[in-house]
Amino acid sequence: xxxxxxxxxxxxxxxxxxxxxxxxxxxxxxxxxxxxxxxxxxxxxxxxxxxxxxxxxxxxxxxxxxxxxxxxxxxxxxxxxxxxxxxxxxxxxxxxxxxxxxxxxxxxxxxxxxxxxxxxxxxxxxxxxxxxxxxxxxxxxxxxxxxxxxxxxxxxxxxxxxxxxxxxxxxxxxxxxxxxxxxxxxxxxxxxxxxxxx
Length: 198
What we know:
Elements: H1 2-31, E1 37-39, H2 43-50, E2 56-64, H3 66-76, E3 83-91, E4 97-108, E5 111-120, E6 125-134, H4 138-146, H5 159-169, H6 177-196
Antiparallel strand pairs: 1-6, 2-3, 3-4, 4-5, 5-6
């Protein structure tokens, strides 16, 4: 009698221990379907070319708290999620702000897109670059985002203007590559407002 219960316990335990391994394996296999990544620009090159020259570059980590998320949602209808964000600041010799750069990784379908958004000292978008994307989406990215001057439409806009433009672009087909990138550009403006008040 005891042997039969012991046998059932072994089977049930084995089954329960196998389930997490199967689900982790499925998630890892699913993520790689976008193929190998295509790198257009290295992160180090983005820091050199997208921030004003002659300044000292500082890496800053800040936490976007729940209150700021709620405030952004109330004011603009969307917000980056609560958590820690990293961005770069260029400061002059006297400590004055020269520019800022957000380098983000956006999850898109079966991979991620690297995006860099630069801001001048007044909080206006100075440059936007796609750093990388899965090989499978290079053509879609070129057609919908890079070749039709979509990114250029955000240049020289203030943070509030960027947020509104991103919101309008978000009304396009849900989960399109343009909509995902526009949301992320808008999110960097919200982060800039929350962290630097620009």
